[in-house]
Amino acid sequence: MSTGRRIVPIRPLSWARKALFAAGLSLASMAQPAASAPAAGELSVELNRLAENGDACRMSLVYTNGLGVTVEALELETVLFDREGGASRFLVVKSQPLIPGKIRVSQYDLAGMACADVGFLLINDVVACKGEGLDPAACLARLSPSSRTRADLVVTEADREPASAGSE
Questions:
Q1: What is the C-alpha to C-alpha distance for residues 49 and 23, in angstroms, rounded to an integer?
Q2: 138: closest CA among 68, 13, 41?
Q3: d(C-alpha 74, C-alpha 94), whole Å
Q4: Which residues, in sequence order, are bridge partners of residue 90?
Q5: Residue 111 exposed, middle or buried by CB count within 10 Å (0-12, 13-18, 19+)
Q6: For the chain, what is the radius of gyration of the CA atoms?
């Protein structure tokens, strides 16, 4: 009894086909955006996305630890500025533990705020930074903020200077 379908046996890939397949996989992986690794000794914080979530603006932050030691707790005091440059809200954002080289994403809902109203986000201070040889001042000096949104994530350069620089 014939169903009209032809069965074609599967042949093993020849070396040429394997090479073409591998080249295709390589090209596909290069097309994917790579997460930028922080420089050694830096703690990268990226404002990755602002997205409407009901009556709130959902803010996604991406943390990458380039410090070489686990950051057990990180708490950042931030100030959200509106589009006109007015300080709108003070927020303390907390991350989960940050393992060296691991990327961690955290989301925070800004209740009653539209994402279009967010001008920029200032990291005002590091409230807590716990880990071997770490303290809030050391973590503040090693912060590397960036943004993939139209709203910038910033820290003042004076905060990034080592505390010993002004004591000479």
A1: 32
A2: 41
A3: 6
A4: 79
A5: exposed
A6: 23
Quick: pLDDT tens for 29-77.
343 344 455 567 899 999 999 999 999 999 999 999 999 999 999 999 9
Rounded-to-integer distance, Cα 25 and Cα 119, Å:
40
Lowest mean pLDDT across 8-22, 70-84, 92-106: 8-22
Contact by Cβ (8 Å): 50, 115: yes
Handedness of CA 130, 132, 135, 140 (dihedral sign): negative
Enclosing H/E stretch for 25: helix 15-31
DSSP secondary structure, 67-133, as one string:
SSS-BSEEEEEEEEEETTS-EEEEEEEEE--B-BT-EEEEEEEEET--GGGEEEEEEEEEEEEESTT
